[in-house]
Design brief:
11% of the residues lie in helices and 41% in strands. It has 3 helices and 10 strands. It has a domain of 173 residues: Beta Barrel (Lipocalin), CATH 2.40.128.110.
Length: 248
């Protein structure tokens, strides 16, 4: 004798719904924190680094910057809320050769005197996929402003959220955020062509620059930057008063 068992769609829903609820929505991290928080990019939270790789016909070199700044906002229960602004100073870029660093900052290249900062602004997020309880992959959407020009970017990256613990507090107070990303930019998109008639782009400097970056942020507001000491001002000595003449 054969028996057939029929299970209604409603019954399957009762079986699967608790599982889905336990996992949470795909754009939420399994962390204690909730609601939007502001993170300040700060080396106290971790070693921020930007590495830029140039591979051309005659020369390969790597440019490194260990000083980045900025801040971002994130609700760990809604990763689509991520927004941020990150920057570095052109004068902090190092290629390993001092003469090349001077050329890099000069008017034929990044022109640090006129355009002292490189800025990336993130205005949106897409393709969020949680990979672990406190981590996710995503694409950051925004613009890069370099050499006085702005160009759109889609940056693949990974994001990891750390609730404050006694261990993390040994480094800095507050919740921590780590962002790792790899992407490319073209110098020609920003009007950077090198010295006129030199044909340096392509031969010794690649038009395509591959960028790998790691930045750390903390919800702890960083202390204000130190101000240089000022020399004490000395006031001019008071002029002596003329002697008083005796009255009549």
């Amino acid at each position: 004798m054969k028996f057939r068992v029929y299970v209604s769609a409603a019954a399957w829903a009762l079986v699967w719904v608790p599982t889905l609820v336990a996992q949470g929505p795909p754009t939420a991290l399994d962390v204690k924190a909730s609601a939007k928080k502001t993170f300040y990019i700060d080396n106290r939270a971790g070693n921020n680094q930007v590495s830029i790789f140039s591979q051309s016909t005659l020369e390969d070199f790597t440019t490194v910057c260990n000083r980045t700044s900025g801040q971002c906002e994130l609700d760990p229960k809604n990763l689509g809320s991520f927004r941020g602004r990150f920057s570095l100073r052109v004068e902090d870029l190092r290629t390993g050769i001092e003469l090349r660093d001077n050329h890099l900052r000069g008017p034929d290249w990044l022109d640090a005197a006129r355009f002292p900062e490189v800025v990336i602004e993130i205005t949106g997020v897409e393709e969020v996929k949680r990979t672990e309880g406190n981590s996710a992959t995503l694409k950051l959407l925004g613009t890069c402003t370099l050499h006085g020009k702005s160009s759109p970017l889609r940056i693949p990256g990974t994001l990891t959220y750390l609730d404050e613990t006694p261990v993390t507090m040994k480094r800095v107070k507050g919740d921590l955020l780590r962002i790792r990303a790899e992407f490319e930019i073209k110098l020609s998109d920003y009007g950077i062509t090198g010295p006129a008639g030199s044909d340096t782009i392509g031969l010794k400097v690649s038009d395509v620059q591959a960028i790998r970056t790691t930045v750390f942020g903390s919800t702890e507001v960083p202390p204000p930057p130190l101000q240089p000491d000022k020399e004490p001002t000395t006031s001019a000595p008071a002029k002596p008063k003329p002697p008083q003449r005796p009255g009549p």
